[in-house]
Amino acid sequence: MQFPDQLKITLASQSVAVDRLPAKPLSRDTETRIEELKRWSGSDNSGVAVSYFFRQYALFVSAQFHLLTYQNGYFKCAGKDLVFNRVHNYGFNLLETHVSSVHFKTIDANERFSAFHYILHEQTAQLIDEFRSHIKHTKISRTNQGIGLSY
């Protein structure tokens, strides 16, 4: 099945790029990625830069919840299969999540719980664990995360 162009456009409004190559990708190496995030977010603090990353990544999580609700599908891939691109929109430095449509999986309504679980407890947790091994956060920093993406 070819991924619908209209859905690509809808996801783009949530900073999700499907089947597009990133122009300015973040490094896949976590330490290098943190340094890139510090420069891109304008912070000298690693914790602030990682918090910035997860606030941007939350758009991808939200987009997946929308896909589950209205399209009966989501991107079933490991966090390491996602690519994050630096973009400048509306005068702000932002991040875009790039994903391949080959990871899009359609599901039946009775599989939604498992899909939500996968998104939060496997895909997202993998990214959190990658950063956690390189920086430490205070409880306050973790509490400030928008949709519970504490690390």
Number of domains: 1
Q: Roughly how much helix do the residues carry, as a percent range?
A: 40-55%
Total number of helical segments? 5
- The H-and-E topology, N to C, reads as HEHHEEEEHH
List the helices and strands and how they pair.
Blueprint: H1 5-12, E1 16-18, H2 30-41, H3 46-70, E2 73-75, E3 83-89, E4 92-99, E5 104-106, H4 112-132, H5 139-143
Helix pairs in contact: 2-3, 3-4
Report a brief summary of the structure:
This protein is of the alpha+beta class and about 150 residues long. It has helices at about 5-10, 30-40, 45-70, 110-130, 140-145, and strands spanning about 15-20, 75, 85-90, 90-100, 105.
Explain this structure.
- This protein is of the alpha+beta class and 151 residues long.
- It has one domain (10-143).
- It is 47% helix and 16% strand.
- It contains five helices and five strands.
- The protein has helices at residues 5-12, 30-41, 46-70, 112-132, 139-143, and strands spanning 16-18, 73-75, 83-89, 92-99, 104-106.
- The strands form two sheets. The protein has a three-stranded mixed sheet. Strands 2-5 form a two-stranded antiparallel ribbon.
- Mean pLDDT is 90; it is low at 139-151.
